[in-house]
Every structure is written in C-alpha cells, then in structure tokens.
Design goal:
Blueprint: E1 21-22, E2 25-26, H1 31-38, E3 43-48, E4 55-61, E5 64-69, E6 72-78, H2 95-102, E7 106-110, E8 113-119, E9 125-132, E10 135-143
Antiparallel strand pairs: 1-2, 3-4, 4-5, 5-6, 6-10, 7-8, 8-9, 9-10
C-alpha cells in the first residue's frame, strides 16, 4: 500500500512593528516627521480620495515617495541606498541577505517583478522588497486597508 505524504509549507515569518521602518520612519508617522527626516520636497500632489480618507497626499523626495491619509503616512517607497531598515537592509543589497536575516517571505509577482513581503506580527503593515535579478530595487512600507 502506497502512502502519500504532504510537506507542510511553513508560514512566512512575521516581523515586529519596530522592524517595519525605513530611516526610522514607520507607517502612521505624522507628515511633519516625514518632512523633517527626508528634507527637500521634489513634488507634492493632493488628490480627493473619498474611499479611504478625504484627501490623499503624495510627497516625493529624492529617492523616496510617500503617501498620506489624514496627515499620517500610509505608504512609503524608498529607491535609494541612502536609507535603511532598522536591520541595516538597503536598496542595492542582494535579497539573499534578507532571507538569511528574516527567513523565506511571502512572494508575489507584480508588473513582471518579484515582490517579497514580510507582514507584521501585530498590525496591518508590511515591509515589502521589490526585487530584480536577486537585488533589492526598492523597499516599501505598506499598510493594508482591506
């Protein structure tokens, strides 16, 4: 009699909220704190958003794009090696170093690119790495509104 075994796939690791930061800025930060941290604004766009908040604001800095709802940070994308996560992870590093540090992430394909997601243990936030050819192209702080 043949037996069939099924390998149980491990749940991707979850991070503490203190690890889901770039340049020590977490999701939920006040707009003034983000402005102070990243400096000169390159572009600011305000868009009505009746679905989630009255107004969504996008503020671009050199190498950083941020989105605010109600004056608080809801998304940030860093595409410069100037800033790092609390664990020292930066754009341009091999993603294998992230796996060595945190373990195997949740993986998705988006726009012909690979994104690696590490969700929070306690909130609806995530640290997301956009990868191309094994190298980190950008680091995103993400908030799940769903």
């Amino acid at each position: 009699m043949a037996t069939t075994s099924f390998a149980q796939q491990a749940e991707p690791p979850r991070l503490s909220d203190t690890q889901i930061r770039v340049a020590n800025i977490p999701i939920g930060s006040a707009q003034k704190d983000v402005l102070k941290r990243f400096g000169k604004v390159i572009q600011k766009t305000i868009t009505p958003d009746p679905m989630f908040c009255d107004v969504e604001m996008e503020i671009k800095f050199k190498g950083v794009r941020s989105y605010f709802c109600g004056g608080n940070l809801v998304n940030l994308v860093c595409s410069t090696p100037k800033y790092a996560t609390p664990d020292g992870i930066r754009v341009g590093m091999p993603f294998s170093l992230v796996i060595a540090r945190f373990g195997n992430p949740e993986t998705q394909l988006k726009d012909n690119a690979t994104i690696m997601i590490y969700r929070s243990q306690t909130s609806d936030t995530a640290l997301v790495f956009h990868i191309k050819k094994g190298v980190i192209q950008s680091i995103e702080l993400w908030s799940d509104f769903t």
